[in-house]
Inverse folding.
């Protein structure tokens, strides 16, 4: 799964890489969480387009968004079958830019966060799906989800799932829903290449979405666990000898 990620590349550099016309201005984000607006690149009237969407897809058939769970991930193995995703897989595929993502490894009773990124620190493009939900009063909301797959060996030691990371040569194939059907596009749903990624443990501060800063992706060493000293026992009370008289 992917429940948090970072997008830190400057807007103009991202625009040059993905080749869209829009000139958005947005701050670096180090702790993007579901339900927040995220940058999305889609194919619109034959050209790549930048748009902000809510992270958490709402299928078109849903009457009340509060009635379903937040669909921030879509399992790649079932996107062509599940009603929530199959129409988007046919007609509304997108790229979700990121500089890295977080995964958590179970360690006893706690979860330790790790950050996964390219070794060169460059941009990643997650495979995504999008939908425009239309409410009962005609209101519209663009929403998106990240497609996931089995983890590559490097990430598998932390978590068994990861986002589908598309290489630049695969971007056109994923975006072009007119000439590339959902079954052909499914061939791109594979684990990333190990040798291009690196993983490091990061601060548990990322667990709270209100935290957002470069310190979240910095290397972190968990403090050693020290034994808690037992509380000192109170001194034993001696029984007063009533046969002796006090001097006070």
């Amino acid at each position: 799964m992917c429940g948090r990620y970072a997008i830190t590349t400057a807007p103009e550099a991202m625009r040059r890489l993905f080749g869209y016309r829009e000139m958005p201005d947005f701050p670096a984000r180090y702790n993007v969480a579901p339900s927040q607006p995220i940058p999305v690149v889609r194919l619109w009237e034959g050209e790549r387009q930048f748009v902000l969407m809510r992270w958490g897809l709402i299928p078109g058939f849903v009457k009340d968004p509060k009635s379903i769970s937040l669909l921030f991930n879509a399992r790649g193995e079932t996107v062509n079958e599940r009603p929530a995703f199959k129409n988007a897989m046919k007609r509304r595929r997108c790229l979700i830019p990121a500089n890295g993502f977080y995964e958590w490894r179970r360690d006893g009773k706690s979860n330790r966060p790790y950050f996964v990124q390219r070794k060169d620190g460059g941009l990643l493009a997650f495979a995504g799906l999008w939908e425009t939900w239309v409410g009962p009063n005609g209101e519209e909301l663009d929403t998106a989800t990240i497609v996931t797959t089995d983890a590559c060996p490097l990430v598998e030691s932390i978590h068994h799932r990861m986002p589908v990371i598309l290489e630049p040569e695969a971007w056109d194939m994923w975006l072009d829903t007119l000439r590339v059907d959902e079954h052909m596009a499914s061939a791109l749903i594979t684990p990333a290449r190990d040798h291009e990624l690196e993983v490091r443990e990061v601060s548990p501060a990322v667990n709270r979405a209100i935290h957002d800063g470069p310190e979240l992706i910095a290397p972190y060493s968990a403090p050693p666990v020290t034994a808690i000293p037992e509380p000192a026992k109170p001194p034993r009370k001696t029984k007063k000898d009533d046969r002796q008289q006090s001097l006070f």
Q: What stands out?
A: The chain has one domain: 5-217. The first strand starts at residue 5 and ends at 7.
